Amino acid sequence: MATITPFRAVRPKPEFAAQVSAPPYDVMSLQEARALADGNPQSFLRVSRAELELADEVDPYSLVVYQRGAENLQNLLKKGFLVQESKPLLGIYRQKWGSHKQTGLVALASVDEYDRGIIKKHEHTRPVKEHDRVQLITTHESQSGPVLLFFQNTENITRWLNNMTNAKPDVHFVADDKVEHTVWSVHDESAIQQIIDDFRKINALYIADGHHRSAAASRVRADRDANGSARTSTHEQGFLSVIFPHDQLQILPYNRVVRDLNGLTPKQLREALASNFELTAIPEPGNPPQAGFDLYLEKQWLRAKPRQDPTSNSQQDPVRALAVSELTERVLDPLLGIKDQRSDPRIDFVGGVRGHQELVAKVDSGNWAVAFWLYPTTVAELMAVSDANRVMPPKSTWFEPKLRDGLFIHMLRDE
Asked: Model's pTM, two decimal places?
């Protein structure tokens, strides 16, 4: 059973939605955040990444940053750019990027079901990032970065979403990155109850993007329970989510760059790779063979196709069937000496949305020795790993388009 709950959302007034909403703060550098917020005092980045208003030497995880963000959130409310709904609602959030379109339900997912594993995970969290999210929630008394969840699609839910989106939307705009955003709200109690009942027939929800956000929501509730905090409502029982049908999500490659060749020459690396991969020169990367990868070395792209198909392991070990696992087990660890991708400073990660030109630029700059363009993890592979209660290697999925912050906010206390 999957439990969803309507909530008294805080939302921007429709005429301010494009101005207020912003990309998630953790997919950009501080310089990029400052550039996006420049000239826009209502940008939600001033809430989620308030250090952009402070001096460079300020620690981004210091209390002063979280307090500035909380002040900016309250200012958006006081000045009427953000308004809290008078009654609980559900939202519908559609994104269109080029030919790709995805439509999800905005609701609170259950913290209890997250703790019990009904909401399934596929990666470990990093303590520093989890603590950052906890501080945001507790200082701001809100959840503003939605978790991207998905479920095995059903005809009933598809029909409900189609019916609800036949109405005129509350909000529609095209952001600077060319992603089209459309939002509807559902207030009708019978329609809300219908979709709640339909989700109760769903066996599980899956986290696509937002492991740190959901873990932080769980920690906040546990901390308040342990401290005996009195609750005036059930606000801490749910966490802000946008829940998509599984067949609408799009995963791009999550690529790697490595700073040096671990003492190998480029020729020696190619020779070592040749024992497990067929190497072919290509003009540029594209969609490499499943579980394979493309690499950029000495100003040349090469396609590495596994000599043995690792997907044959998928029934026994769904993690080993992944392209990122093939790269990890046969290249990064044994050849390049990278034992822990989470902590080794010799490796960095580049989302597929940035294109292969970003990889070329990094290697050609001389600061990085080799780049790897991976075959994207599929939704089916993600589900198989989650269902087996396994964990993927770090940075295995890059979902695109990203959910914008600030279109729906879940307050932990009523305004």
From this structure: 0.90
